[in-house]
Design goal:
The structure is a single chain. The chain has 93 residues and is an alpha+beta fold. The chain folds into two domains: 46 residues, no CATH class; 44 residues. Helix content is 42%, strand content 15%. It is built from three helices and three strands, in the order βββααα. The chain has a three-stranded antiparallel β-sheet, with no helix packed on it. Helix 1 packs across helix 2. The structure holds zinc ion (ZN). The site of zinc ion (ZN) has 8 residues, from loops. The site of zinc ion has 8 residues, from loops.
Length: 93
């Protein structure tokens, strides 16, 4: 897991609580100071690294790519691409 410091983009507060996931897989946050919703920035339409890890772990545990795709509402081709990328990355890092 990677720890990321997220600041409220409305008031700059770091006093945020997690508030589920956006449809594109990004973590959503609720600011406790100004009560507005924020989400992970700035990469707009990519799935977050944490979300990828979550999905890939689910695939390993259930050994069902289709099931995970259905659970997370993403295409199974996307998951298989991530699996390939993970293999590639893990050898270099
Ligand atoms: Zn705020």
């Amino acid at each position: 897991m990677v720890t990321v410091t997220v600041k409220c983009r409305h008031c700059g507060s770091e006093n945020l609580s997690k508030n589920g996931f956006a449809p594109n897989g990004k973590q959503k946050y609720l600011c406790k100071d100004c009560k507005k919703a924020s989400r992970e920035d700035p990469t707009s339409n990519a799935y977050s690294q944490d979300f990828r890890e979550l999905v890939l772990r689910a695939c390993e545990e259930r050994s069902s790519l289709r099931g995970a795709a259905r659970t997370f509402s993403i295409h199974r081709h996307t998951i298989s691409r991530w699996q390939e990328e993970k293999k590639t990355n893990s050898s270099s890092s």
